[in-house]
Amino acid sequence: MGDFYQNGIITTLHNLVRRPVGDLEQDLMKFRKSRPMSLVLPSLFSELEGPALKNIVQELAQVPYLDEVVIGLDKANEREYRYALEYFSELPQPFRVLWNDGPRLRKLDMTLREQGLAPTEMGKGRNVWYCFGYVLASGVSESVALHDCDIVTYSRDLLARLIYPVAHPGFNYQFCKGYYARVADQKMNGRVSRLLVTPLIRALKKVCGPSDFLDYLDSYRYPLAGEFSFRTDVINDLRIPSDWGLEIGVLSEMKRNYATNRLCQVDIADVYDHKHQDLSPADASKGLSKMSVDISKALFRKLATNGEVFSNEKFRTLKATYFRMALDFVETYENDAIMNGLSFDRHKEEKAVELFAQNVMRAGAYFLEHPMDTPFIPSWNRVTSALPDIREQLLEAVELDNEEYRP
After folding, report:
1. Rounded-to-10 torsion of CA 34, 38, 39, 43
2. % the chain with pLDDT above 70
3. Are 191 and 349 within 8 A, CB to CB?
4. Among residues 93, 116, 240, 314, which is most buried (max CB within 10 A)?
């Protein structure tokens, strides 16, 4: 907010004048003629029972330019799937709900599993991957946006600003990442991004040396934002992790596949708040603890593919370097919070840093112990090469589910 500075090696698109959403939508209606647009919403059924998604649906009902809405529904039985179809019927746009736990999509998943092509674990990455497959199969759109379903401060200008850079026919961007300040209830949120990702990237630069990839990641103002948009053909060659490394994995893939002048980030919200994960210090398989391990592993794997050699000694050095840098960041954020009249619990912040430092070592140990680990879901290009009619099968399964169970 309030600056036009271009930091790093990707383009930053600011919110300089608070342009009315109606103006943005008029432009998007024009862009729609040459670049029709889809929206992907990965959702748990539990999110249909909360207040955030109800408001999101009401806001989306006012969006005039979308040609398709694709909802990926996880952890839902038949009754809940029927309810979801009715729940989203408020949308005026054509929409489809992928019942990921239904018999048809489970059968399709088994077909892929037999070929070693299915996602290996449940989660957002798997949900998003199947939604992307449906977007490719439907062939409706030239541009596609994705955002979470737990944004309690959602308004439709978030989507307009998010998809605008990849929908504009005169822009050259293939990918756009949303960013925002994570401030709500008079305090700073976004601990994993503030206290793990940024100081870990800076520590990796110091320990591993100069790196175009690390400079690239450091250019993103909020690298863990779950809101991004693509030109649709980008999806074909995208390999994404199925765990909490999804956002870092997507950024890594975009750097691998495209020049940085084809990538951008955009300010999409003055206020942003969503469901918060517990720190979970006693259980590394849950909450922010698991998230910090998965993200660290994703970073180490990517650097290894670039030729970086890791060892126990290097991980010990990295942990010490990260810990010192992260504690310095705590002081920086405390000063920022005080100047802005926000509350700040330094003890909790430093406890989080201590946990993340342990998990950097835990992620490093896992990386060294599992050198053959392949956590990425295969690209849709590879899947289609092995099973040429798989998109048609996915499209048919989703259509039959929607026809059979829709009220």
Report:
1. -170
2. 97
3. yes
4. 240
pLDDT above 60: residue 1: no
Return d(Cα 62, Cα 250) in angstroms, integer.
29
Q: How sure is the predictor about 183, in pLDDT bands with cuts at 50, 70 and 90?
A: confident
The three-class DSSP label of residue 204 is: helix
Length of the chain equals: 407
User: Per CATH, which fold does 11-405 belong to?
Assistant: Spore Coat Polysaccharide Biosynthesis Protein SpsA; Chain A (3.90.550)
- Residue 376 DSSP label: E
Q: Specify the amino acid at residue 87.
A: Y
CA distance 100 to 131: 10
pTM, whole model, 2 decimals?
0.94
Contacts 24+ apart (CB under 8 A), 52-58: 52/149, 52/150, 52/151, 52/152, 52/154, 52/274, 52/275, 53/149, 53/150, 55/152, 55/154, 56/149, 56/151, 56/154, 57/87, 57/88, 57/90, 57/91, 58/90
Domain range list for the chain: 11-405
End-to-end CA distance of the chain, in Å?
Answer: 45
The C-alpha torsion from 223 through 258 and 10 to 302, rounded to 10°, is: 40
Six token digits for residue 277: 């994960």
> How far is residue 377's CA from residue 379's CA, in Å, rounded to a whole number?
6
